[in-house]
Design a protein that fits this description.
Blueprint (H helix, E strand, L loop, with lengths): L9 H16 L7 H11 L3 H8 L4 H11 L15 H16 L7 H11 L3 H8 L4 H13 L7 H6 L3 H6 E3 H6 L10 H11 L6 E5 L6 H14 L10 E5 L1 H5 L7 H16 L2 E6 L16 H10 L5 E5 L1 H8 L3 H6 E5 L5 H19 L2 E2 L1 H14 L7 H18 L4 H22 L3 H31 L3 E2 L1 H12 L3 H14 L1
Parallel strand pairs: 2-5, 2-6, 3-4, 4-5, 7-8
Antiparallel strand pairs: 1-3
Helix pairs in contact: 1-2, 2-3, 2-4, 2-6, 2-7, 3-8, 4-7, 5-6, 6-8, 12-13, 15-16, 19-20, 19-21, 20-21, 20-24, 21-24, 22-23
């Protein structure tokens, strides 16, 4: 999920996932207000679901109404689907409702209030067709929400033992379990060192120290992958590794002591759960964080728990920041064991790129040659001096692949024309639905089915042609990107490389 969904409760996030599933169920290539309504009803346990259930709104009834008004698409939709402008408006209104109620989270109840306030989408029409009074929904939701606490989501307490951590952090072990973390190549020694420190009785908090882009976060991700695979000692088995963003903790705090309260909640939840470790990127931000107007900063809040072993933290920072902030605070420095993370060599970078190549090929639908990987590593080391390996080489591969894909994968005019026609029909149908001209909308639905079939036929042919001859990312493509980044002409780069090869 993107940053704008950080304050969503687990139930609210689940509603968005269910909304996408419902859109796919109907073969719709968008998430509209009607799909959000289906997600709210289907979620079943949140405040919004209970309110809708009390008002007699059932999943099957909503599905039938949506199918009658809009109909089903003829083509299966695969992958992520974007929100319609009305659905985005619902999200904005949900955030506004949470703010109005002084809640520091967005739950299913706020999504329902946003849906009701938007008032013009298909969801509002469906609710009206089921005899639901929109004002009555709003009144009941506000009444139920007003009875719940204003500092944490009522439904979140039932969902998780660590609601504050879930809201403020990101579970790396959950991402690893879902296969969303790239394989980590060539960092076995550093990961082993981190595991050794975490398994110590005292001073068991590793501090990863290295320049930006050398792979400090990747080491934490590698540890998460090992925990999920069970390739760790018993002391770390089944542990959760969660990234904690200090900026998110500070954001939105208005009053003295509010930041301290949030951070103490995090510490308390970790103590109670007993299975959670924190990864704090930019570790040096602990010093001074939240210390406005004489309040205690994050470092001083965490030090007692770190010293008693109630909290385990993996930190990451640069050598300069470590010396400037961490070493100056001797009590904090004693809690951490430094782990030096050096920049990878060109040869190691090539191996790393080989390990993650398949992910970039799949994402960009291209073929990346071995020569391109070698070229990216060597040119990144030679020409890009303000950044570090392997990060700069990975960025080179990513951007070169993107550039090749855009240049050589333009849809044919016939497909573009068919997609424009489909877009026009969809807009016309939506206008008819909003004007409650359902017969006209039904006729447009039939027209939409015809155009969709045409688009699907043209897309299938286009993708088959793409798969037969995928664009190839080679050395020249890497050189072009290096030229764009550095301003060095491509011909000069090619000449220098030729001279270097002759001298070998």
């Amino acid at each position: 999920m993107s940053d704008r969904f950080d304050k969503f409760t687990e139930r609210a996030k689940k509603v968005l996932v269910l909304a996408q599933e419902e859109a796919q169920r109907f073969n719709h290539n968008y998430i509209g207000t009607e799909h959000l309504l289906l997600g709210l009803v289907r979620e079943g346990e949140g405040i919004a679901a209970k309110v809708l259930s009390n008002l007699g709104v059932e999943l099957q009834k909503v599905r039938s109404a949506v199918e009658f008004i809009i109909g089903r698409g003829d083509r299966m939709v695969i992958g992520d689907i974007s929100l319609t402008p009305r659905a985005k408006k619902v999200i904005e209104l949900a955030v506004e409702e949470a703010r109005r109620l002084n809640h520091n989270y967005i739950g299913t109840e706020h999504l329902l209030l946003g849906l009701v306030r938007e008032g013009e989408g298909i969801a509002a029409g469906v609710l009206e067709s089921l005899g639901v009074n929109l004002e009555k929904v709003r009144t009941q939701v506000i009444q139920v929400v007003s009875q719940s606490t204003t500092t944490a989501p009522a439904e979140g307490k039932q969902q998780s033992k660590t609601p504050t951590i879930d809201q403020m952090g990101q579970d790396l072990t959950a991402l690893a379990r879902a296969g969303k973390i790239d394989p980590i190549i060539g960092r076995d020694k550093e990961i082993e060192r981190v595991i050794q420190i975490l398994s110590r009785r005292n001073k068991n908090n590793p501090a990863l120290i290295g320049e930006p882009g050398v792979g400090k976060t990747a080491i934490a991700e590698g540890l998460a992958r090992r925990i999920v695979a069970g390739d760790v000692p018993d002391t770390l088995m089944n542990k959760r590794l969660v990234t904690l963003d200090i900026g998110s903790l500070v954001a939105g705090t208005k009053y003295r002591g509010e930041f301290e309260e949030r951070l103490k909640k995090v510490v308390e939840e970790i103590k109670q759960s007993g299975d959670c470790m924190l990864f704090i990127d930019e570790l040096h931000t602990l010093v001074g964080a939240g210390a406005a107007e004489g309040a205690v900063d994050a470092a001083n809040i965490l030090k007692p728990s770190l010293s008693r072993g109630e909290l385990q933290v993996i930190g990451a920072t640069t050598l300069d920041e470590y010396r400037k902030y961490i070493e100056r605070d001797k009590a904090l420095e004693r809690r951490f064991q430094p782990v030096q993370v050096r920049e990878t060599t060109v040869e190691e970078t090539i191996e790393i790129l080989k390990g993650i190549r398949a992910n970039y090929e799949q994402h960009h639908r291209v073929t990346i040659t071995d020569d391109a990987l070698k070229c990216a590593s060597e040119m990144a080391g030679r020409y890009i001096s303000d950044r570090f390996l392997p990060d700069k080489a990975i960025d080179l591969i990513d951007e070169a692949s993107s550039r090749v894909r855009i240049q050589r994968a333009t849809a044919p005019n016939s497909l573009k024309e068919a997609m424009r026609e489909l877009d026009a029909v969809l807009k016309e149908k939506e206008a008819s639905i909003e004007a409650q001209k359902y017969e006209e909308a039904a006729a447009l639905r039939d027209r939409e089915a015809e155009v969709r079939e045409k688009v699907q036929r043209l897309e299938t042919g286009f993708h088959k042609q793409e798969d037969i001859a995928r664009p190839i990312v080679g050395e020249d493509d890497i050189a072009q990107v290096v030229s764009m980044w550095t301003g060095i002409p491509v011909m000069r780069i090619a000449q220098e490389e030729s001279e270097r090869l002759l001298q070998m």
